[in-house]
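TA notes. Do not distribute before section.
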Amino acid sequence: NNLYRLNKKDETLLTEQDLIYGLRNAEVLAFKGFVFRFQHKVFITVLGLLQHHTDAEDIAQEVFIQVYRSINNFKAEASLATWIYRITVTKSLDHLRSKKRKKRFGFITSLFGDTGKPVVDVADFNHPGVQLDKKEDAIILFRLITELPETQQAAFILNKVEDLSYREIAAILNTTEPAVDALLQRAKQNLRKKINQLPL
């Protein structure tokens, strides 16, 4: 198969076909190219959903590992990016559910880390994509986003932080564009209500 062109020596030049073929053949250059191309998108998406740097780094790493292990299951029915976003959102939401379960059974543990010191509150979270003069408002907004239903969280982060289109989000969430529009409208309405309820 002459489509295999990993003799380019530069992972930044690899096409999507190169990446898929290379990953399926366990080529180091393909994995480096894959990480180079998607690491920022994956990390920012996970960080937007989890709002915790250490957790986001761990989950992002899990995403890359899962892609590497399951690349043979990729059917190319959607783009490689859509498939990766889908894995990213799924892993992030699974992690959030796991944390919620742990909090139900260990409230004291959730307040204090292994060192006995309080864990970093989401109010201290700063997203790297937010301009400095808007960080105070962004901190409040991101805190309120965590109170939204999971699908609204995912749609809002993918649209407002990752700037993905309704079509791309629909493919990632395995739904329709009208459903994405409805999710975003409900998310905005819920956020507006929560903002109006904030103390002045």
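Switch to the second chain here.
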Amino acid sequence: MAEPALHHVGYVVSSIALSIDGWRSAVSPVSVSPAFEDIIQGARVIFLDLPAPAVKLELIEPLGPQSPVAAFERKGGGLHHLCFEVDDLDQQISKMKAFKAMLIRHPQPAIAFGGRRIAWMRTREKLLVEYLERARNQV
């Protein structure tokens, strides 16, 4: 089984459309994904492929006032979470619970990842971590 690998860093913005040019200048992405609107997550997201191998920057825009990131955006947005890709999501959740991390969103499919499951946890150090289940053909 492969170790968890950093997949992306999530950053909350008030508007992807209004901020994308600044991000293109700041991080010089090699490509930018199409936008994904995920009703389950309550957010619109895009991914910027960074020049560093296999690392992405996710820009997250709340879809409305009920979005899980809306309150964060109202405070100015900013660095939101780290996402790690894992082989077995349920096993990773159990492992993190043993380290006293708290599960804050149970596993669910994510549109931006082709329906692969994600889960959200907060570590004892108050770090918000998203875990993304690795596609079976990537193991």
